[in-house]
Amino acid sequence: MSHRLQVLIPPELDARLRKSSQRLGISTGEFLRRALRKSVLQSDTGIPNQDPVAGLAALSAPTADIEQMLAEIERGRS
Fold first, then answer.
1. Is the dihedral of CA 38, 42, 43, 44 positive or negative?
2. Is the pLDDT of residue 49 over 80?
3. The pTM is what?
4. Confidence band, pLDDT 50/70/90 cuts, at residue 51
5. 8-state DSSP, 73
């Protein structure tokens, strides 16, 4: 079952929402549902979704000089 949610927003944000949803060919309601799902998922995982570099940094993966990484990859192939 769906629930109705009423949120008051300023006119300039409303105009931007309508323009963005029209560009995607979806209703404003669907645009907002997608944005909310994405935001909740991001909040649940703790991984920033908007900035790809920040998302990679949040992984705390090992890094090295590109030449060193390529050499390690080649050594792993043999």
1. positive
2. no
3. 0.55
4. confident
5. H
Q: CA-CA distance, 47 to 39, in Å (whole number)? A: 11
* CA 22/CA 26 separation, integer angstroms: 6
Round to whole Å and give the CA distance between 50 and 38: 10
The string of DSSP letters for 23-70 reads HHTS-HHHHHHHHHHHHHHHHHH---SS-HHHHHHHTT-----HHHHH
Token digits of residue 64: 């090295």
Euclidean distance between CA atoms 15 and 40, whole angstroms: 24
